[in-house]
Specification:
The chain has about 350 residues and is mostly helical. It is about 75% helix and about 0% strand.
Length: about 350
């Protein structure tokens, strides 16, 4: 005899399976973050046993041989990579939802280029007025202003241009203009003053200090929490402005908040690590594919974990592939991100 299952029971079963999948994916990404964090601290020019690494991190033992290496060099760098990857992933996700386009990210729209120009101005301009160093807060503020200026330009154009391809091209051109202005600064600066900036533009988490980790943690966590609190308006916006407005979303305020959050997240990372490409573009796609949903209530925390884990892996590859030579971190993130985005485009998995 055929048994008819009530619709509510079927829906409940489906929801239970879906939430089990969400929990499993989030748990796997969380384990990956912890695993790659420990590997980043343990591996290097001097390999530290994993047991000693874990005990030293959690201060179970005070190993004088490894303590300074772990606490003064490797752990700040690993935490910087973790926080930066999480921030870039959320920044990319916000922009993709805002433009309802899967190939938008801070790097493609020129936000990173704008932040780079502002940092170049802060770094090399400071030498012109006699300053020998620029503190992290100044760099972070300059990076944010540069990113904001570029994003405001792109948004102003977006209000007049409906074709998304045209908008992306304009974003790219704005980025090229910012890059050209940075090149002008380099051309007129003294060679010794350019060296630090050139190294910075290659993208690296080396040399990150605890003070910079505190800024990344304080600013990044607040901004990511703000992004998560906007999950419901983001979900409504995915269905169109009219639907979002009918659900009580203040569209004008929503636009300002998304611009602010995405720019600030990208800017704070660019200030300390330089331009890091493809994390903000590729990670949201990976999170959507793993979860099988575009619900930002689940997608944002998953993107945070995925971005953190992947950036830790890419930083480890940058240090270890050709050791003792260290690759720019943007090289390894591009090696990971570019093939992934191409795969999504070919397979048609780039929907929001």
């Amino acid at each position: 005899m055929k048994v008819n299952i009530p619709k509510q029971t079927t829906d409940t079963t489906f929801l239970a399976k879906r939430w089990k999948r969400f929990a499993l994916v989030i748990a796997l990404f969380a384990v990956g973050v912890v695993f790659f964090l420990i590997l980043n601290v343990a591996l290097g020019s001097i390999n530290i046993p994993l047991t000693d690494t874990v005990k030293t991190i959690f201060k179970v033992q005070d190993n004088t041989t490894y303590q300074d290496i772990i606490w003064q060099i490797r752990l700040p760098r690993a935490l910087g990579a973790l926080l930066s990857g999480a921030a870039l992933a959320v920044s990319g996700l916000l922009l993709q939802v805002f433009f309802r386009n899967p190939i938008v990210g801070p790097h493609i729209l020129g936000i990173s280029s704008g932040a780079t120009f502002a940092v170049a101005l802060a770094m090399m301009g400071s030498y012109l007025i006699g300053m020998t160093a620029v503190n992290p807060i100044t760099l972070s503020l300059a990076s944010f202003i540069g990113a904001m200026v570029v994003m405001v330009i792109v948004i102003a154009v977006a209000s007049k241009v409906r074709d998304i391809i045209t908008l992306l091209v304009i974003g790219l051109m704005t980025g090229y203009v910012a890059s050209a202005l940075s090149s002008f600064l380099i051309a007129f600066a003294q060679s010794e003053n350019v060296f630090r900036f050139v190294i910075w533009t290659m993208g690296s988490f080396s040399g990150i200090t605890w003070s910079e980790v505190y800024i990344l943690a304080g600013g990044g966590v607040v901004l990511m929490l703000g992004s998560y609190l906007m999950a419901k308006p983001l979900n409504a916006f995915l269905l169109g402005e009219n639907y979002a407005r009918s659900m009580g979303v203040n569209i004008k305020l929503f636009r300002y908040l998304v611009i602010f959050l995405s720019c600030a997240l990208a800017a704070i990372v660019t200030a300390f690590a330089g331009p890091v490409a493809f994390v903000g573009l590729a990670v949201p796609h990976l999170a959507r594919l793993a979860l099988g949903t575009s619900d930002n209530r689940i997608l944002i925390p998953t993107s945070i974990l995925a971005g953190a884990g992947i950036t830790l892996l890419c930083d480890l590859m940058a240090r270890m592939l050709f050791s003792p030579v260290e690759l720019p971190v943007s090289a390894t993130t591009a090696l990971f991100g570019a093939p992934l985005v191409i795969f999504f485009l070919i397979k048609g998995k780039t929907t929001i």
